[in-house]
Amino acid sequence: MRKGISAVIATVLMLAIVIALAGAAWMFMSGVFTATTATSFSIVDSYQDTVTIRNDGTDPITSLTATVDGINVNILVGK
Asked: Phi and psi for 25 in degrees, rounded to 5?
């Protein structure tokens, strides 16, 4: 008769493996491993002389420069 691991130990090992895989899948899906770059924004809306942007990155936007009719313009960043 051959000896092996008991059924209780096998069950505990299987549960630990399944929980670890589920945790890794959840972290990947929630964006822990696929973080957005630190400086990223997108234009949400523009109407007449107002442009609305959204910060898609992880760092706050502290300054913004745009080119209007070939001239660099510093833009006020509000909270």
From this structure: -65, -40
Q: Cα separations (Å) of 17 from 4, 9, 22, 55, 56?
A: 19, 12, 9, 38, 35
29 and 53 assigned to the same domain: no
- Same structural domain, 24 and 50: no
Q: What is the pTM of this model?
A: 0.41
Q: What is the pLDDT of residues 12-23, one digit of tens each?
A: 999 999 999 999
Quote the Cα angle for 58-67-43, to 5°: 40
Shared domain check, 27 and 7? yes
